[in-house]
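Appendix C reproduces, verbatim, an entry submitted by the partner laboratory led by Prof. M.T., so that reviewers can inspect both the input and the predicted structure.
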Amino acid sequence: MNAHPRTGLFGRPVLTVTIAVAALVGAGIGGVALAGRDKNTDPPQWQPAPAASTPRSSATPRKESAEVPAAEAISLSATGDIIMGSAPSKLPVKGGDGFFDSVADELKADLVMGNLEQPLTGDTGSSKCGSPPRDNCFAFRAPPSYAKHLKKAGFQLLNTANNHSNDYGRQGYKNTAAALEAAGLRHTGAQGQITVVEVKGVKVAAVGFSSYAGANNLNDLDAARDVVAKAADQADLVVVQVHMGAEGSDKNHVRSGHELFFGEDRGDPKAFSRAVIDAGADVVVGHGPHVLRGMEFYKDRLIAYSLGNFAGGGKTLSSTGVLKYGAILHVSLEPDGSWAGGKVVSTYMNAAGVPTADENGKSRDLIADLSADDFGDSGAKIGEDGSISPPG
C-alpha cells in the first residue's frame, strides 16, 4: 500500500490506527487465578521458570484440556491502546459515561482484553514529565473511578506493559492496579506476572511484555521464552500482549530487525513473536506503533503485529486522517490452541477520541493490504466480511 505522509500524534510526527480483538462466541469468565500475586500492587519480580516445555511442532497441538471437550472453542477479544482522557483538563464529557457504548457489543467475548495506555490515579506528584511538564513529553492519567467505564464496556483483563503505565511513578502504578481490582478487573504486564483466568473450563494465561522497566522485557528473548513456558505449564491457552515497534505514520509495515524510536529499542517484532510462540503462546496481540499493522500465522498461531489506537478520549490522540482508524479483532481457539476462526471489525476515533463502530470497513481493508504486502504466503487472509483465515 502507499506510504502515508507523517502526521502528528501528540502534536509530533507519528501515525496511528487501531485494532481490538473481539469474540465469536459469548460467555463469561469463571474462576480467576494469578501466578504470583495479582492482588499485590507492587509489580512482582520475574523468577526463573521451571524447565521449558518441549518446543511446539507446527503439526502437533501443544496440549489438550482434560476439562473441556476439544470441539468447544472459546472466544477472545483484545484492543489496542486505550486512553480515556488525561486529567485534569482533557477528560471526556459526562465524566466518561457512555464512552464505549458504540463498540461495547462488538467487544463481547468469553474473555475481553485491552491495552490500558494510562494510569488510573490522582496526581502523585511524580509525573515523568516534571512540573511544569517538559516539551514533547506526554504523561496521561484518568481518575481511578474510570475503571467502572472499562467494566461497563465488558473488559475483563487489561494489559499494563507499555510506555505510559508508569507515567505517575510507582505509586501511580499501584493506584492503577488497585482501581482495576476494585472494579473486578484483572491485569497483567508486570515483570514475572502471569494472570490465569478460567473460561468455560479452559485456563487462559495472559502475559504482557514491553521494553520498559517493571514489565517483562521483550528484548530479552531467553527470559521471554522462560516466562511463556511457565505460563504454558499453568494453563491450556497462552495469550501474549506486547507493546512493540517504532511509532509513526510511516511505521505500519513490519520489517526484520530491531525498531528504534527516539533512541529507544522497541524490539524485533518478528523475532519476539516467533520466540514466544515457540515457547508455548497461542496468540500474540501487538500494540505500540499507533498504527495498524498486518497479521500473519506462524506455526498455525496468529500474530497481530499492531492493533493501534482504540481510544484517545479528551483529544489525547489525533483523530484526523489515517490516525483515527481502528478495529476490533475476534479470535476463537480450541482448548488445545488450534485455530477456530476470527474476524476484524473496523472502528475509528471520532473528533473527541471516542471509539466508534465503522460500517465502511476502512481498518479491515488496511489490515488485509498490510498482511498481504508484508507477509506473503504466511499472511492472514482477511475476507470482505472481516473474517480471518490462515494462508492456504
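Residues 1-28, 30-54, 57-61 have pLDDT under 50 and may be disordered. Additional entries are available on request from the coordinating office.
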